[in-house]
Design goal:
Shape: globular
CATH topology: Rossmann fold
Mean pLDDT: 97
CATH architecture: 3-Layer(aba) Sandwich
CATH class: Alpha Beta
Structural class: alpha/beta
Order of helices and strands: EHEHEEHHEEEHEHEH
Amino acid sequence: MKEPEIIVLEDGGAMAVRAAEEIVHLSGEAICTHGQFSLCLTGGNTPAPIYELIATRFHLSVDWNAVQLFWGDERCVPPDDPASNYGMAQRTMLSKLSLGSDQVHRMRGEDPPEVGAQAYSELLREQFGLEQGEAPRFDLILLGLGNNVHIASLFPGQPALHEKTRLVLPVEVDAEPSRRLTLTLPVINQAARVMFMVAGEGKAQAVKAALQGPRDPERFPAQLVAPAHGEVMWVLDKAAARLLG
Protein backbone atom coordinates (compact mmCIF):
# COMPACT_ATOMS: atom_id res chain seq x y z
CA MET A 1 0.00 0.00 0.00
CA LYS A 2 1.17 3.51 -0.77
CA GLU A 3 1.38 6.10 1.96
CA PRO A 4 -2.05 7.63 2.65
CA GLU A 5 -2.87 10.86 0.86
CA ILE A 6 -3.83 13.53 3.40
CA ILE A 7 -5.89 16.51 2.24
CA VAL A 8 -6.59 19.30 4.73
CA LEU A 9 -9.28 21.92 4.04
CA GLU A 10 -10.05 25.18 5.80
CA ASP A 11 -13.28 24.12 7.50
CA GLY A 12 -16.01 21.50 7.53
CA GLY A 13 -17.86 23.09 4.62
CA ALA A 14 -14.79 23.07 2.40
CA MET A 15 -14.03 19.53 3.51
CA ALA A 16 -17.51 18.38 2.49
CA VAL A 17 -17.18 19.95 -0.97
CA ARG A 18 -13.75 18.38 -1.54
CA ALA A 19 -14.95 14.96 -0.39
CA ALA A 20 -17.96 15.18 -2.71
CA GLU A 21 -15.69 16.22 -5.60
CA GLU A 22 -13.38 13.27 -4.95
CA ILE A 23 -16.29 10.80 -4.87
CA VAL A 24 -17.68 12.20 -8.13
CA HIS A 25 -14.23 12.03 -9.77
CA LEU A 26 -13.69 8.44 -8.67
CA SER A 27 -17.14 7.46 -9.92
CA GLY A 28 -16.24 8.67 -13.39
CA GLU A 29 -12.88 6.92 -13.29
CA ALA A 30 -14.43 3.60 -12.27
CA ILE A 31 -17.25 3.80 -14.82
CA CYS A 32 -14.78 4.61 -17.60
CA THR A 33 -12.56 1.71 -16.54
CA HIS A 34 -15.08 -1.09 -16.01
CA GLY A 35 -18.57 0.31 -16.56
CA GLN A 36 -19.71 0.49 -12.95
CA PHE A 37 -19.03 2.31 -9.67
CA SER A 38 -19.41 0.28 -6.49
CA LEU A 39 -19.60 2.71 -3.58
CA CYS A 40 -19.76 1.65 0.05
CA LEU A 41 -21.37 4.31 2.22
CA THR A 42 -20.76 5.13 5.87
CA GLY A 43 -22.96 6.60 8.60
CA GLY A 44 -22.52 9.26 11.25
CA ASN A 45 -22.85 13.03 11.13
CA THR A 46 -19.91 13.98 8.89
CA PRO A 47 -21.13 12.31 5.65
CA ALA A 48 -24.61 13.88 5.69
CA PRO A 49 -23.66 17.20 4.03
CA ILE A 50 -21.40 15.33 1.62
CA TYR A 51 -24.27 13.10 0.51
CA GLU A 52 -26.50 16.16 0.12
CA LEU A 53 -23.92 17.84 -2.11
CA ILE A 54 -23.57 14.75 -4.28
CA ALA A 55 -27.34 14.57 -4.75
CA THR A 56 -27.81 18.27 -5.50
CA ARG A 57 -24.83 20.32 -6.65
CA PHE A 58 -23.00 17.38 -8.22
CA HIS A 59 -25.82 15.07 -9.25
CA LEU A 60 -25.42 15.77 -12.98
CA SER A 61 -21.72 14.85 -12.76
CA VAL A 62 -22.43 11.19 -11.93
CA ASP A 63 -23.78 8.52 -14.29
CA TRP A 64 -26.23 7.20 -11.71
CA ASN A 65 -27.34 4.31 -13.92
CA ALA A 66 -23.89 2.78 -13.41
CA VAL A 67 -23.73 3.20 -9.61
CA GLN A 68 -24.20 0.40 -7.08
CA LEU A 69 -24.55 1.48 -3.42
CA PHE A 70 -23.65 -0.59 -0.39
CA TRP A 71 -23.09 0.04 3.32
CA GLY A 72 -20.06 -0.54 5.54
CA ASP A 73 -22.06 -0.96 8.72
CA GLU A 74 -25.54 -0.60 10.10
CA ARG A 75 -27.22 -0.23 13.46
CA CYS A 76 -29.69 -3.02 14.30
CA VAL A 77 -32.75 -0.81 13.96
CA PRO A 78 -35.47 -0.48 11.31
CA PRO A 79 -34.63 1.66 8.26
CA ASP A 80 -36.94 4.47 9.40
CA ASP A 81 -35.27 4.72 12.82
CA PRO A 82 -33.30 7.99 13.29
CA ALA A 83 -30.20 5.90 14.12
CA SER A 84 -30.25 3.98 10.83
CA ASN A 85 -27.27 4.59 8.54
CA TYR A 86 -29.44 3.69 5.58
CA GLY A 87 -32.09 6.12 6.81
CA MET A 88 -29.56 8.96 6.94
CA ALA A 89 -28.45 8.26 3.37
CA GLN A 90 -32.09 8.01 2.28
CA ARG A 91 -32.94 11.43 3.74
CA THR A 92 -29.85 13.25 2.48
CA MET A 93 -29.16 11.62 -0.88
CA LEU A 94 -31.25 8.68 -2.08
CA SER A 95 -34.60 10.48 -1.87
CA LYS A 96 -33.23 13.11 -4.28
CA LEU A 97 -32.04 10.60 -6.88
CA SER A 98 -33.78 8.27 -9.31
CA LEU A 99 -32.17 4.95 -8.46
CA GLY A 100 -33.55 1.50 -9.10
CA SER A 101 -34.12 -0.86 -6.19
CA ASP A 102 -31.48 -3.12 -7.76
CA GLN A 103 -28.87 -0.37 -7.23
CA VAL A 104 -29.34 0.16 -3.48
CA HIS A 105 -28.15 -2.67 -1.28
CA ARG A 106 -28.86 -1.91 2.34
CA MET A 107 -28.03 -4.00 5.39
CA ARG A 108 -31.25 -5.17 7.04
CA GLY A 109 -30.78 -3.82 10.54
CA GLU A 110 -34.30 -4.86 11.51
CA ASP A 111 -33.50 -8.58 11.14
CA PRO A 112 -31.85 -10.68 13.86
CA PRO A 113 -28.15 -9.73 13.70
CA GLU A 114 -26.84 -13.17 12.70
CA VAL A 115 -29.49 -13.39 9.98
CA GLY A 116 -28.72 -9.87 8.72
CA ALA A 117 -24.98 -10.53 8.61
CA GLN A 118 -25.39 -13.81 6.73
CA ALA A 119 -27.84 -12.26 4.27
CA TYR A 120 -25.51 -9.36 3.48
CA SER A 121 -22.56 -11.72 3.03
CA GLU A 122 -24.62 -13.69 0.51
CA LEU A 123 -25.70 -10.48 -1.22
CA LEU A 124 -22.05 -9.43 -1.62
CA ARG A 125 -21.10 -12.83 -2.99
CA GLU A 126 -23.91 -12.61 -5.53
CA GLN A 127 -23.31 -8.98 -6.54
CA PHE A 128 -19.56 -9.42 -6.96
CA GLY A 129 -19.61 -13.01 -8.26
CA LEU A 130 -17.39 -14.25 -5.44
CA GLU A 131 -16.05 -17.72 -4.92
CA GLN A 132 -15.68 -19.10 -1.42
CA GLY A 133 -12.84 -17.32 0.38
CA GLU A 134 -12.90 -14.25 -1.86
CA ALA A 135 -13.73 -10.70 -0.73
CA PRO A 136 -15.48 -8.05 -2.83
CA ARG A 137 -13.37 -5.30 -4.34
CA PHE A 138 -15.26 -2.04 -3.91
CA ASP A 139 -14.23 0.88 -6.07
CA LEU A 140 -14.54 3.14 -3.03
CA ILE A 141 -15.27 2.56 0.64
CA LEU A 142 -16.13 5.64 2.67
CA LEU A 143 -15.19 5.70 6.35
CA GLY A 144 -15.66 8.08 9.22
CA LEU A 145 -13.57 7.96 12.36
CA GLY A 146 -14.89 7.55 15.88
CA ASN A 147 -13.49 9.45 18.83
CA ASN A 148 -12.11 6.09 19.99
CA VAL A 149 -10.49 5.57 16.54
CA HIS A 150 -13.06 2.97 15.47
CA ILE A 151 -14.05 2.45 11.85
CA ALA A 152 -17.35 1.11 10.52
CA SER A 153 -18.53 -0.78 13.63
CA LEU A 154 -15.12 -2.23 14.42
CA PHE A 155 -14.36 -0.93 17.90
CA PRO A 156 -11.18 -1.17 20.03
CA GLY A 157 -10.55 -4.56 21.59
CA GLN A 158 -13.24 -6.40 19.62
CA PRO A 159 -12.65 -10.00 18.50
CA ALA A 160 -14.06 -8.82 15.15
CA LEU A 161 -10.77 -6.99 14.51
CA HIS A 162 -9.15 -10.40 13.99
CA GLU A 163 -11.72 -11.87 11.60
CA LYS A 164 -9.99 -13.35 8.55
CA THR A 165 -12.67 -15.08 6.49
CA ARG A 166 -16.20 -13.76 7.05
CA LEU A 167 -17.35 -10.70 5.10
CA VAL A 168 -19.97 -9.31 7.51
CA LEU A 169 -20.28 -9.76 11.26
CA PRO A 170 -22.88 -9.02 13.91
CA VAL A 171 -21.18 -7.13 16.75
CA GLU A 172 -22.00 -5.54 20.09
CA VAL A 173 -20.23 -2.24 20.72
CA ASP A 174 -19.81 0.27 23.51
CA ALA A 175 -22.16 2.80 21.93
CA GLU A 176 -25.85 3.17 21.24
CA PRO A 177 -27.39 1.31 19.56
CA SER A 178 -25.03 -1.42 20.73
CA ARG A 179 -26.06 -4.16 18.28
CA ARG A 180 -24.74 -3.62 14.78
CA LEU A 181 -23.64 -5.21 11.53
CA THR A 182 -20.25 -4.42 10.03
CA LEU A 183 -18.02 -5.27 7.12
CA THR A 184 -14.82 -6.94 8.23
CA LEU A 185 -11.25 -5.82 7.64
CA PRO A 186 -10.61 -8.34 4.83
CA VAL A 187 -13.37 -6.57 2.88
CA ILE A 188 -12.20 -3.06 3.72
CA ASN A 189 -8.63 -3.93 2.80
CA GLN A 190 -9.65 -5.40 -0.54
CA ALA A 191 -10.98 -2.03 -1.74
CA ALA A 192 -9.43 -0.15 -4.64
CA ARG A 193 -9.75 3.05 -2.57
CA VAL A 194 -10.71 3.96 0.97
CA MET A 195 -11.60 7.53 1.86
CA PHE A 196 -11.71 8.76 5.45
CA MET A 197 -13.84 11.86 5.94
CA VAL A 198 -13.25 13.57 9.28
CA ALA A 199 -14.19 17.03 10.55
CA GLY A 200 -14.13 18.90 13.85
CA GLU A 201 -11.75 19.57 16.70
CA GLY A 202 -13.28 16.70 18.67
CA LYS A 203 -11.74 14.23 16.22
CA ALA A 204 -8.21 15.66 16.35
CA GLN A 205 -6.90 13.18 18.93
CA ALA A 206 -8.36 10.26 16.99
CA VAL A 207 -6.81 11.47 13.71
CA LYS A 208 -3.44 11.87 15.42
CA ALA A 209 -3.65 8.37 16.91
CA ALA A 210 -4.67 6.78 13.61
CA LEU A 211 -2.02 8.45 11.48
CA GLN A 212 0.87 9.20 13.82
CA GLY A 213 0.20 7.39 17.09
CA PRO A 214 2.07 4.36 18.40
CA ARG A 215 1.30 1.18 16.49
CA ASP A 216 -1.48 -0.31 18.61
CA PRO A 217 -4.39 -1.47 16.41
CA GLU A 218 -6.20 -3.09 19.34
CA ARG A 219 -6.64 0.43 20.71
CA PHE A 220 -6.69 2.23 17.36
CA PRO A 221 -8.58 0.08 14.83
CA ALA A 222 -8.21 2.66 12.03
CA GLN A 223 -4.53 1.67 11.89
CA LEU A 224 -5.65 -1.66 10.41
CA VAL A 225 -6.95 -0.02 7.22
CA ALA A 226 -4.17 -0.86 4.78
CA PRO A 227 -5.35 -2.14 1.38
CA ALA A 228 -2.57 -4.25 -0.12
CA HIS A 229 -3.56 -3.25 -3.65
CA GLY A 230 -5.41 -0.02 -3.01
CA GLU A 231 -5.10 3.58 -1.94
CA VAL A 232 -6.15 5.45 1.18
CA MET A 233 -7.15 9.11 1.27
CA TRP A 234 -7.91 11.24 4.32
CA VAL A 235 -10.05 14.33 3.72
CA LEU A 236 -9.88 16.49 6.85
CA ASP A 237 -10.69 19.99 7.98
CA LYS A 238 -8.06 22.02 9.81
CA ALA A 239 -9.71 21.38 13.16
CA ALA A 240 -9.48 17.60 12.78
CA ALA A 241 -5.91 17.83 11.46
CA ARG A 242 -4.63 20.31 14.05
CA LEU A 243 -2.48 17.80 15.98
CA LEU A 244 -0.74 16.31 12.97
CA GLY A 245 2.96 17.05 12.88
